[in-house]
TrEMBL record:
Reactions listed under catalytic activity: futalosine + H2O = dehypoxanthine futalosine + hypoxanthine
Species in which this protein is naturally found: Thermus antranikianii
Transmembrane spans: none
EC category name: hydrolase
Function of the protein: Catalyzes the hydrolysis of futalosine (FL) to dehypoxanthine futalosine (DHFL) and hypoxanthine, a step in the biosynthesis of menaquinone (MK, vitamin K2).
Keywords: Glycosidase, Hydrolase, Menaquinone biosynthesis
Protein's UniProt name: Futalosine hydrolase
Similarity section: Belongs to the PNP/UDP phosphorylase family. Futalosine hydrolase subfamily.
Gene name of the record: mqnB
Pathway noted in the entry: Quinol/quinone metabolism; menaquinone biosynthesis
Amino acid sequence: MWLLLSPTVLEAPFLRGEPFSFLGRKGLRGEGFVWLETGIGKVNAALTLAAWASQDSVEKALLFGIAGAYPGSGLLPGDVVLVGEEVEADLGTQEGLKPLGFPALEVGGKAYYNRFPLDPGLTRALARMLGLRVVVGLTRDRVSENPGEAEALASRWGAQVESMEGAAFARACLALGIPGVEVRAISNPAGVRDKGAWRIPLAVRALEGTLAPILGGAFPEGLQG
Ligand SMILES: O=C(O)c1cccc(C(=O)CC[C@H]2O[C@@H](n3cnc4c(=O)[nH]cnc43)[C@H](O)[C@@H]2O)c1
């Protein structure tokens, strides 16, 4: 059973199931999955996963949504990627959390500061099955507002895509011991606010095509990659 999450219902129009409400947002109980709308931003993503996991065991979780592509990533609107590692870039100083001396998370004897891996086995298995590129995602509660800001972030942290939830989801999965993976479809060039450059419907259609084999049960239960 998958726990699927997306920031908005606009990213999940292709899902079918029994509707319910969770934390005041939408949810669906489908065949082989539960989907939750988390709301935009880091806190919403983390609290939705944690609140659900507090009431129901979660075998594996998949966060999906649209994202911006950084300059130099080679990614275009409609491209779909798996995020193998997330950077929480608005945590600590401009250089991250390490200068403050306190890790964001300690689990399994490892201290995490600004970089949080998604589940490597599950990510590898999905990458093989779906033929997807694995990239580094960057997360802030803010969005890049000009190409210069986007370029600086991408260069500083070695990231290819930008979102507002990924690192929070990855950190929550690590903290809760939930195997988590993240699928993002590119909707826009990061740092470009002109919505004329955005291709949200194209990105959502790409999400539908990418998730279809998983929703169709093509991803055998228990396969960890
Ligand atoms: O108005 C703007 O300039 C603007 C810039 C970036 C994103 C937004 C949104 O309202 C979408 C936020 C929503 O979608 C994800 N997303 C999509 N593209 C980006 C991006 O370039 N940078 C950050 N987040 C992005 C995000 O995860 C949210 O769920 C508006």
